Amino acid sequence: MRSTGTEPIEETSVTATSGKARRLATSAGEWRGLVAPALLVTTTVLFVVGVIAWLMDAPAAADVCWLVGTLVALIPAVGWVVAELLRRRAGVDLIAVLSLVGTALVGEYAAGALVAVMLATGRTLEAAAQRRASHDLDALIEHAPRVARRRVGDQVTVVALRDVRPGDLLVVGPGEVVPVDGEVAGGAAVLDESVLTGESLQVERDAGEPVRSGVVNAGPAFELRATATSDESTYAGIVRLARQAGAEGAPVVRLADRYAAWFLPLSLLVAGVAWIVSSSAVQAVAVLVVATPCPLLLAAPVAIVAGLSRAARRGVVVRDGAALENLGHATTLVMDKTGTLTAGRPAVLDVACAPGWEPDEVLRLAASADQLSPHVLASAIVAEARVRRLALSYPVGVVEEPGRGVSATVDGHRVEVGGARGSPPDVSWASAALNRAALDAAAIAWVSVDTEPVGAVLLRDPVRRDAPRTLRRLRSAGLTRLIMLTGDRREPAAEVASVLGLDDLYAQQSPADKVAAVRAERQRAVTVMVGDGVNDAPALAASSVGVAMGARGSTASSEAADIVLMADRLDRLGDAMQIARRSRRIAVQSAVVGMALSIAAMGVAAIGWLPPAAGALLQEGIDVAVILNALRALRGGRGTDVALPGGTARLVQGFAAEHDDLRKTLTVLRRAADQLSRGVDDEALVALRGVVGYLTEQLLPHERAEEADLYPALAEVLGGSEATATMSRSHAEIERLARRIGHHLAVAEAAGGVRPEQFDDLLASLYGLHMVLLLHFAQEEENYFVLADETTR
Known about the structure:
Elements: H1 19-55, H2 59-86, H3 93-105, H4 109-133, H5 135-142, E1 147-152, E2 155-160, E3 169-172, E4 182-184, E5 188-192, H6 194-197, E6 203-206, E7 210-211, E8 216-217, E9 222-226, H7 234-244, H8 251-278, H9 281-290, H10 296-313, E10 316-318, H11 321-328, E11 332-335, H12 337-341, E12 347-353, H13 359-370, H14 376-387, E13 396-401, E14 405-410, E15 413-418, H15 428-439, E16 443-449, E17 452-460, H16 467-476, E18 481-485, H17 490-500, E19 504-506, H18 511-524, E20 527-531, H19 537-542, E21 545-549, H20 555-560, E22 563-565, H21 571-606, H22 612-630, H23 646-665, H24 667-677, H25 681-718, H26 725-751, H27 759-792
Parallel strand pairs: 11-18, 11-20, 18-19, 20-21, 21-22
Antiparallel strand pairs: 1-2, 1-3, 3-9, 4-7, 4-9, 5-6, 5-8, 10-22, 12-17, 13-14, 14-15, 15-16, 16-17
């Protein structure tokens, strides 16, 4: 990067330390990190040279080499013991010191040299495991930007990140890290968000769209209008969390410390008894040799930090080992609704129309008028129009009134979108729209053209596609109580809770109410709270484990949380739960098995069947085994995730895209039924023709292709055709109802209109097929289509 006016800046506020202090700390850390490898090399060389001397019939020279190796290891070992004692902890390094001293005093120089190599190997393996396990967390910190390029007029200067203020215009070059949160100032930006979310696909942000700090510019240079300082930006909060990540405070590690508190006196007792019974100091030394260094204190931290690393690779940043361990045995989950269980942004549910108007035309006019509005409902209407590929017109004379909506001239007509001007229209189509909005807990935006009401756009915050599957995974992982805690009204909250099968619901909750509810749950069980808004931050802090949806959540919620889900996907919580339980299980398993093996070896050594040298080799093997076992936490277990082969994943993604298109046009069934119920014969017959055309040209070919291509491919992965049997039964019902509607159309065409005797059955078939398809689509999306997302993450 070239400077055009200032010198390069070495550090910023994001690093939370001065450059000099950081360099000194780095140098000290690097020096300490070299002690264990240097000790391992020295002791190994001296041991090998001693072996060579012994083989060359020079026992005196061999003993000297082995004794020197013992003394070389004794010096840092004493330092480690003193450091532990200053912390008021008597660790198993004390046994190592005693065994080194004991082997030197009784003349077991070879055993002493082996203990020295063993001690150095254990320390080196632990350090290597910690470095490997924390690699992904370190990568988050190293990725943090340190400078920004600020543009003022035609001048671009390199400035410290702490000097960037909201409103500054920044330039982000190709391959550079976005330094602060902001909005694309002009053109479009192509971004790689994998560092934050784990998603490999690049995303494109248009002018005015928000961009989070920490993502990488994967396209040409673009300009960014800063909306936050570096300290307030997304990545700064993530870096602060990553800096705190570690395993020292985890309860499972404290458990290991408690085990060590009795393991040390047990070792000394067994050694003392062996000495008294056998009158041989050599047997006592042999007991100490196999008891040190105990794998107990090595395995637990390595497994926990490995779990932290694996969670980071899945887009889950965990504050510390205590949070990961607590997550591993939680039984209650409390969740916010908006942005956690639902998408957090409204989507168009349906478009109701006055007679003579088409839904796409009503939506096009509404979206055209709403293009310049920042309102969240306006954005949803415009987004839906773009998904349907409607050609929008540029609005002129735009007027937006808070609480009323937008009015603008579109194609020569005055279009109004928003709340009803006065009372809602007293006509049948409007009454039906109001009734459905009440039943579906949807918002409604009325559309008028030249003061004449022509339609209504129904909008609702949809349930996340991955939510049902994620909650099933969480229940299978051990959560027994799932609760929704929301400030929303009870009606929409109850519908979401019913769909997801939640155990309890608290609606219309203030932040204080949320804190009280979480505290009450926490008194009964280890409780996880998931939220994304500023109002969730106090509840997150009050829970046993707070989880923030960090992709779109507030900085306050991320700071208050113990865990941050960097991707805007609830299923990452399921990943984190599985990782937590696996890491805890491996930590306990490694510590207990290693300790049991050491105790068994101590018993054998106490009766004189295991000399010190052989015991040292055996204990070395135990240490290496438990550390390698602890490192298994870096890899995934069997779990419940289903990985689709590449061809199957692409097939699923293709059908998922078709689903999205079919869902947009599914309302043709409901509109035809509505027109039929109003008894307008000509319009009903035209609508019925449209339904049959939709079924024969779009829907049935899609369903038949699923049955022929998709389901057999999924059956191979999911364990047989029974996994898709219920969906195949739905296909048969869809075919049956489609044939029935087709038969009704043929009869109506022959009679010149819908006959009275057809009315009831045709109405039931249309409404029935509509509901069957809604359920069928939801089941396929929850059970099958999310598998492609899990495979590609």
